[in-house]
Design a protein that fits this description.
This protein is an all-alpha fold and 349 residues long. The chain has 16 helices and two strands. It is flat, with a radius of gyration of 33 Å. It is found in: Membrane.
Amino acid sequence: MMGIQADWMVTHIGQQAPVWFDVFEYIFAVVFTWELVMRILVYNIKFFRMPDWKWNIFDSVVVGLQVFDIITTLAIGTGGNGNLNFMRLVRLLRLLRILRLMRVLRFVQELRSMVMSIAASLKSLMWTIILLAFLMYGVGVCLIQMVADKGLDEPRIFEIAPDIKTYYGSLVEALVSLFAGITGGIDWNDLLEPLENQIGPWLAALFVLYIAFAVLAMMNVVTGIFVESALQSTRADEEKEVRQQLQELFKHVDASRDGFVCWEDAKRHLEKPDMMRCFESLGFNISEAYGLFKLLDTEQSGNIECEELLEGCLRLRGPANAIDVATLQWLWQQFFLGILHEFPLVKFV
């Protein structure tokens, strides 16, 4: 609705928006506020302690901004023109309601993974900008110093070569030009040509070295770092999602609510769609459920603690890592040492 309203207002500059825009705005405000109040009444204090408490606070802030926007708009509308600066602030607050689109992230795992990957790369982005700034600053200072030295011999250099004034007239302009040269904003040959013609052809080697290092070396390394950060964030988000699903699933399996799961309780839930999807996400077949239960039941008691079952399933998810292989080697070593201790006359070939 905000997009439709913004499109109508920009295509009808100077005209008052129709009343039905406000009607729909009030309807949406009532629906969202009622939904938020019902959730608070149902969960009470758990509303701010449940696993999705961050999303609950986010929803509360968005709904609060919408209610504040409506109240201030009605107050200003009934009191004349009001304070112009305050009205502009209210219009800016309306833009924050676009954050409602973030609610979609709760239900679409692929979209949430993409956003989480981008957020995880922000730290790498900050250091990339700092490294790029150091590189451009060093090259930019060298270039404008050469232009300044050339200006001592030819004070009319900016009149003879206007491109030098455009691209290297100051340190800030030089930094912007160097950044545009490696990001495609300006063809780097256009940046090099006035330097080569007015200062010297030898400067082409320095400039080409800068372009080659920035584009071929630094950018490729930075791309690899971003990809690695995105992959780590995706794996962490998937593991968190699987953990939450397993926790909710085991709560339903634990019929006695004593924190333990027995095979009989687990067997009754094997044919349910939630259990089958859970096994597929872990990389197991539903026919392997009994073997998995026996494998995790180290005490052979027929009951496994929910937390132990959860950690065991997550540990068996995916390929074995180095610590698993090392642990297996140590256990086999202890096994053979125990046999040699019990049967000292036995020799192994």
